[in-house]
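sry for the spam today, last one i promise. struct tokens for design, 230 residues
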């Protein structure tokens, strides 16, 4: 994906940007309007121009990570794996981590005779539980390519010689778009991503500018998903 979008992708991006400027479906503080409360969170959005079996052309839209505190919103493709589903193992795992943190805090405040040893054991348990939960999450992300081949994040990044997938892998807009397209037998034609909102402290992202996909999180996934396509 190049910084200069394909003309079709740019048309789709401008259409999505008009929607972001006028929509009332949800509230998210991009830092672009006066009077908004809470932390300012700019967001990367993506569009994928597709063609269906009837040769009709349209576009899909996606956002990276979560938007307005959620994974599912009108206008956007769903996540590949929804970690916010009620009663999911992710929710239960995070609740367990919260309980461990509360135990650690209580021990550090009360300081019984052996509190240092107890805290050490609890921190070790927390680390092991967190690593186990992260691996479970990676094993629930499966990505399709055009040939219908499906691979998990763990398989994809192992092939790319990563010890583990990086945090947040699988949540970017580009992989979401391609996965949805292949799920629904849509032919990808052009794709681009743009940043919407104020820049974070790094000032790397600028409002309304187009960007290529990130290499660390997305390139190994794209190598699998685009196999035989480009």
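last one done:
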């Amino acid at each position: 994906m190049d910084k200069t979008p394909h003309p079709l992708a740019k048309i789709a991006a401008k259409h999505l940007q008009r929607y972001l400027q006028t929509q009332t479906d949800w509230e998210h503080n991009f830092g672009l309007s006066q009077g908004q409360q809470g932390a300012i969170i700019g967001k990367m959005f993506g569009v994928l121009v597709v063609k269906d079996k009837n040769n009709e052309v349209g576009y899909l839209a996606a956002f990276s990570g979560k938007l307005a505190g959620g994974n599912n919103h009108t206008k956007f493709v769903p996540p590949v794996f929804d970690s916010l589903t009620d009663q999911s193992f992710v929710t239960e795992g995070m609740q367990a981590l919260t309980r461990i943190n509360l135990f650690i805090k209580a021990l550090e405040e009360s300081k019984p005779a052996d509190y240092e040893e107890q805290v050490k054991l609890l921190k070790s348990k927390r680390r092991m539980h967190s690593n186990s939960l992260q691996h479970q999450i990676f094993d629930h992300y499966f990505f399709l390519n055009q040939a219908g081949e499906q691979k998990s994040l763990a398989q994809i990044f192992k092939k790319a010689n990563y010890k583990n997938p990086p945090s947040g892998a699988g949540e970017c807009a580009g992989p979401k778009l391609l996965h949805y397209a292949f799920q629904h037998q849509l032919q990808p034609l052009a794709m681009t991503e743009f940043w919407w909102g104020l820049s974070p402290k790094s000032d790397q992202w600028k409002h309304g500018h187009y960007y290529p996909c990130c290499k660390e999180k997305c390139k190994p996934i794209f190598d699998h998903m685009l196999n035989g396509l480009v």
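Helices lie at 7-22, 89-110, 115-138, 153-159, 173-183, 215-225. ok im logging off now
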